[in-house]
Write a structure and sequence with these properties.
This protein is of the alpha/beta class and 249 residues long. Helices cover 32% and strands 17% of the residues. It has an 8-stranded mixed β-sheet with strand order 5-4-3-6-7-9-8-10, sandwiched between helices. Strands 1-2 form a two-stranded antiparallel sheet. Helix 7 (150-160) runs parallel beside helix 8 (185-195).
Length: 249
């Protein structure tokens, strides 16, 4: 299969920007993809719990991979728009979704991010309605997991931020989840720059991934969160951190 992003540490990196634009990819074995790139089930459950806690209805996923996290995110009636650059990988993901009750709520698109994401974001940021992707409603939650280069992470987080529901006057919080923030020094530096941006009301550092939250009226510095059994986010209230409790997983 083709690898359009940064690849994995084990394979020594993936396509460069020039290779990606030129339509070439780096070959990655399926079993290696499963072993190195698929988010652990615990993390997928955490993200589904986060979406439920937020009251999220619309989710964008950048990087479908094998679609396991996608299926979790589509639980509880949520609609997920997910994009994957490798057609075979997207096909395997879709085959898996057909075995779940979430199948009808997932829209999978085969494309490189630069081909579709800017247009989706512009449409939602401008009007919040239209024809592309799950009704073109603003997103409540965006999961960025398709390109582990700092420049690309900044590009896509910057693109999706104006299309979040909280930035369109929504009452509920919105969030961008950045996966693999400790992947390497480049990703760690990228995460710290993103976390320092004024556009976010607070951020959550979960170790393997980070959460950038837009919630008008709530401001707090970086919060390190340990989750009980990986499923409970509720002891940290969205309404404010004056009585924040710290708890262990």
């Amino acid at each position: 299969m083709a690898e359009w992003g940064s690849g994995s540490v084990r394979t020594g990196g993936g396509a460069t920007e020039a290779e990606s634009v030129g339509g070439r990819g780096v070959a990655v074995r399926v079993r290696d993809r499963i072993r190195w790139s698929t988010a652990p089930a615990r993390q997928a459950r955490e993200l589904a719990a986060l979406a439920r806690w937020m009251g999220a209805e619309r989710v964008l996923e950048l990087g479908t991979n094998l679609g396991l996290t996608t299926a979790y995110l589509a639980g509880d009636g949520r609609r997920v728009l997910t994009v994957e650059g490798d057609a075979r990988l997207a096909g395997w993901a879709a085959a898996g979704w057909r075995q779940t009750e979430s199948w009808g709520r997932i829209e999978g698109v085969v494309a490189r991010f630069e081909e579709v994401v800017p247009g989706w974001c512009a449409e939602r940021a401008a009007t919040g309605s239209g024809s592309a992707g799950a009704g073109a409603e603003p997103w409540d939650l965006v999961f960025v997991d398709g390109d582990h280069r700092s420049e690309a992470v900044h590009r896509w987080v910057g693109a999706v931020a104006p299309a979040l529901r909280a930035n369109r006057g929504g009452e509920r919080p919105s969030a961008v989840v950045v996966d693999d923030i400790r992947w390497n020094a480049d990703m760690w530096a990228a995460w710290n720059r993103l976390a320092a941006e004024d556009r976010w009301d607070f951020v959550i550092d979960r170790g393997a991934y980070g959460v950038l939250v837009r919630h008008p009226g709530v401001r707090h510095p970086t919060v390190r969160v340990a989750l009980r059994d990986g499923l409970r986010w509720d002891p940290i209230p969205w309404g404010g951190f004056g009585n924040q409790r710290t708890f262990a997983g």
